[in-house]
From TrEMBL:
<dbReference type="InterPro" id="IPR013945">
    <property type="entry name" value="Pkr1"/>
</dbReference>
<feature type="compositionally biased region" description="Low complexity">
    <location>
        <begin position="88"/>
        <end position="101"/>
    </location>
</feature>
<keyword id="KW-0812">Transmembrane</keyword>
<dbReference type="GO" id="GO:0070072">
    <property type="term" value="P:vacuolar proton-transporting V-type ATPase complex assembly"/>
</dbReference>
<feature type="transmembrane region" description="Helical">
    <location>
        <begin position="20"/>
        <end position="41"/>
    </location>
</feature>
<feature type="compositionally biased region" description="Basic and acidic residues">
    <location>
        <begin position="76"/>
        <end position="87"/>
    </location>
</feature>
<feature type="transmembrane region" description="Helical">
    <location>
        <begin position="48"/>
        <end position="66"/>
    </location>
</feature>
<feature type="region of interest" description="Disordered">
    <location>
        <begin position="75"/>
        <end position="110"/>
    </location>
</feature>
<protein>
    <submittedName>
        <fullName>V-type ATPase assembly factor PKR1</fullName>
    </submittedName>
</protein>
<keyword id="KW-0472">Membrane</keyword>
<dbReference type="Pfam" id="PF08636">
    <property type="entry name" value="Pkr1"/>
</dbReference>
<dbReference type="GO" id="GO:0005789">
    <property type="term" value="C:endoplasmic reticulum membrane"/>
</dbReference>
<keyword id="KW-1133">Transmembrane helix</keyword>
Amino acid sequence: MISFLTELWESIFTPGTTPTLVLATHATFALLVVTLTVFAFLTKSIHIINLLVLSLVLWGILTWFINEINTLNSEKQSENTETKITETKATTKSAAKKPTSVNTTKKRKV
């Protein structure tokens, strides 16, 4: 439990989403939904039911957003990997084709 809290505290200062932060978010929303469901059955208040619906919608939107961030990060990582592979191949080909001595001086017309 202590290690989870430590990881949660450190994940707050880490850019992006971490598995610990996502787990804590889902657990918090699950407890909120359970609490509001119990209150809705006990009070039969339309206000509590509205809060329950709003919390479910917010949880769904937040889950979608987390999945989009993870998708973009994985695409970015695969793009970076492909770029590095392409650059390595291009560097290897250009090094193989490049002559060892090239005359780079230009002659002036007088």
